[in-house]
Amino acid sequence: MGDRGRSGSRNDAENTTVFEHYTSHFSEKRPNSSAALLEAVRSIHPDKHITAIEPYGCDLIGFALAGGHAKATLVRNGTQFSHTRTYSPPRSRMAGGRGTLGKSIAFGFWDYSWERHDLQVYSLEWPRGDGCGTEECQYILTPAIDEEDCPIADALIEAAGKYTAELHKEIYVFDAGDWDKSKLLWEAVQSASWDDVILDPATKDGIINDVHTFFDNRSLYEDFGVQWKRGIIFHGHPGCGKTITIKALMKSLQDRNVASLYVKSFKARQGPQYAIREIFEKARTMAPCLLIFEDLDSLVVDKVRSYFLNEVDGLEKNDGILMIGSTNHLERLDPGISKRPSRFDRKYYYKLPGEKERILYCEYWQNKLKGKIEFDSAICQVVARLTEGFSFAYLQELFVQTLLSLIGGRADTDVDEVEATEEVDPSKYHDEDEKTKDKKASKKDNKGKGKKGKGKGKKAPKEVKEMPEVAIPEQLQSDPLMLALHKQAKALWRDLDSSEDSVHSRSKFGGLGSDDEDESEDSSDSDSD
After folding, report:
1. N or C: the chain end with fewer CB closer than 10 Å?
2. Coil, strand or helix: which one is 527?
3. What values do phi and psi take at 236, rounded to 5?
């Protein structure tokens, strides 16, 4: 038998022995799996230098499988490897396809080539002792040396570790106590554009300049001896564009090599303080970066407030970190967060869109539908008046429901099935006459008056908001799109809660981490505080 045959037989025997130890060990009680497995590998490979690493920060196998960096070949020696077959369905049933088969390898022995070095690597995975998830370890086998550390292994770890830490068309997302790289969120962000964000040009420029100027002026901060960090809060009504603004910022910063880190929660098995520590440690490592806290008021609760503030502006430097926090309830934030300089220095208020912004949003849809449906420009003015008090989320819902009704052939049917007998006469849509105005003024003057001492304990009836009566231009009174928009607007008005903030009390769309990409068509209106 040649040298290669004898060497291959010896490796097969050694691999078998390690595998037997692996399976035996996890069939018994074990005090320290990592130490036991390392000792097993050392004892079975006495002619090798063994370097153990955790793949979380340095994934050797992922580094090789990414292509072009190294080559890893799984040694399939009979049954001496352990894996679970996996199946990933197509990204969308509509797109079709058969899905993808894969492997989740719990025990693997790899022939590994890197930089003209032929090495071997064990990759092992086992359940945590507390039953929460798994632990992993990889062992690099290099020629035996007398030194404690192996230069070849260290160089490989450095190269693979750098690659592992970098983002490759991904966004870091923190949830359940761990950072994960999300390709799905990265793809969702690619659809975001400043053209989709409807707000006052001065305000839009203010937000863009605040963010981009920060990343442009590191040297200026250093020259003045000021720590290179900032914080911005987007606050105001839900459905008015905070999320799409954040997405547009993330998209615009990609070409500047600014990483985006998105925090979904502070929940972690080790507790919220551990989570906060992990979040800021990663941000300091990834700087310059955009660190995003969506729904900041629900994240920073009383029991973690002090710890959070210490990470924001404690003894450790946060150079290169721009924090953006969003909230629908600024009043719920501790003043130490919302009003203290050097933490969140700038605030932008997202109010309900005014008539000008509602017109711009209708024109945005007019442009989207160009060549697909007849859209008279005069419709924008009428719809803007019909939807006073609507958020952008509700405006979007109006157009989506209108298009569905047109596609489904329901444009000529009253949206209120209960009042199916009601006949719609566009010619009756007119501006308020003096009698109607006087009646509404009388209601307003009497609001909150009377019934003193009567009906004790009963709440006064809420004021019911009604859709404004708007004059429909003659050329639009038989326009199918105009008629459908009016009917759907009436349906949305009836759907709204009658409370004071009913129009903007709920958003119909998910947040930044939502799978619903309709949010990318949302828009915003904001003013700098």
Report:
1. N
2. strand
3. 135, -160
Alpha helices of 45-102 — where are they, by DSSP H?
A: 60-65
CA dihedral for 263, 269, 270, 271, sign (positive or negative) = positive
Domain presence at residue 173? no
> Could you tell me the pTM of the whole model?
0.71
pLDDT at 326: 93
- Dist CA 34 CA 22 (whole Å): 11
421 lies in a domain?
A: yes
User: If DSSP codes are grouped into helix, strand and coil, which group holds residue 479?
Assistant: coil
Q: Are residues 61 and 158 in the same domain?
A: yes
Q: In 3D, which of 110, 122, 41 has the Cα closest to residue 70?
A: 110
Residue type (1 letter), 314? G
Whether residue 55 lies inside any domain: the answer is yes
Q: Please write the tens of the pLDDT for every residue from 309-320.
A: 999 987 788 999
How far apart (Å, rounded) are the C-alpha atoms in residues 250 and 242?
13
What pLDDT, on the 0 to 100 scale, is given for residue 457? 54
Residues 192 and 299 placed together within one structural domain of the fold: yes
Query: Do 64 and 127 belong together in one domain?
Result: yes
For 129-138, what is each residue's pLDDT tens digit?
666 677 888 9
Q: Whole domain around residue 39: which residue ranges?
A: 11-76+110-166
Q: CA distances (Å), 457 to each of 447, 460, 461, in order?
A: 18, 9, 12
Tokens of 27: 């069939």
Element containing residue 162 per DSSP (H, E): helix 151-165
Nearest CA to 178 out of 261, 235, 236, 108 is that of: 261
The answer to whether the CB of 165 falls within 8 A of the CB of 285 is yes
Contacts of 488 (CB under 8 A, 6+ apart): 398, 401, 402, 405, 415
